[in-house]
Amino acid sequence: MRSRLSTIARALLPGVASAIAFAACSSSSPAVVSAQKKFQGLLGQPNVTAFLDVRFGDSLYRVQNRFPNGSLETAPYGADTYRINNIEVDGIRYSQVKYEFTTYSGMQLVMAWFTPDSSDKVLAKLVAAVGPPNEQKSAKSSSPSDTQAFWQLPHGERVVYDGPKRFVAVLGPGGGPLKKDALENETLDSP
Question: Rounded CA gap, 104 and 141, in Å?
Answer without folding.
Answer: 44
